Amino acid sequence: MLAAVRMTAFVVIAPPFSYRGFPARVKAMLAVGLALAVSPRVTADYVSLDDAAFFGALVQELLTGALLGFLVYVIFSAVQSAGGLIDMFGGFQMAQAYDPGSMINGAQFSRLLHMSALALMFSSGAYLLIISGLTRSFTALPLGSAIDLAASAESIVLAVSEMFLAAVQIAGPLLVVLFLADAGLGLLTRVAPALNAFALGFPLKIFLTLTLSVVVFTALPGVVAGLTDGAVDTLLGVR
Predict the structure, then answer these.
(1) Distance between CA atoms of residues 109 and 9, nearest Å
(2) What is the pTM of this model?
(3) CA dihedral for 4, 6, 7, 12, sign (positive or negative)
(4) Which of 31, 27, 29 is closest to 18 using CA atoms?
(5) Which end of the chain is more exposed for a tag (fewer CB within 10 A), N or C?
């Protein structure tokens, strides 16, 4: 039961399992199945607890699973953040809407990159590495053990830093092109003020975004692989 609580809290929060396209019954069955799979490992060093200590351990496992799931969620938010940057610089931000299925509030590229990353995680088997890192977390954090708050805070700071860095790296080439387009339009407006070059800015930036977005999608498989490795390292870094 303690292992199932940690697994359930992780599956509810961490991608790709947190996607609302998966029914809650499937998530619960997956969490229980994973708990049964790791039970031979976790029962070797487990010491039987009384009622009060057992309920305390349940709360501890719930917090541990939620923390591990949140770390994975933050790291993979880099793809969504990169899509948000592309939407903002490319002029798609005005079409922002909330997607209840993926629980994303963003425009076209935010949702498109998010769905593409989920598809790549399942097609490449990256989700298996995340599950492997979760099962190995029982070695670093045995059942009922307290979380080191200093190590957890350090892991959160590292995950947020990696998220921002990865978002800029993903969308960086396209953002540079869009910035140069804005600079060119600004210079053209200074040379010929009556031309009103910024009126042409929206269709030009949309055209550049749609044309050069293939560069982002070409690099996306390697990005997902790198984010998966970072998520596993972050999971194992929590003590």
Answers:
(1) 29
(2) 0.77
(3) positive
(4) 27
(5) N
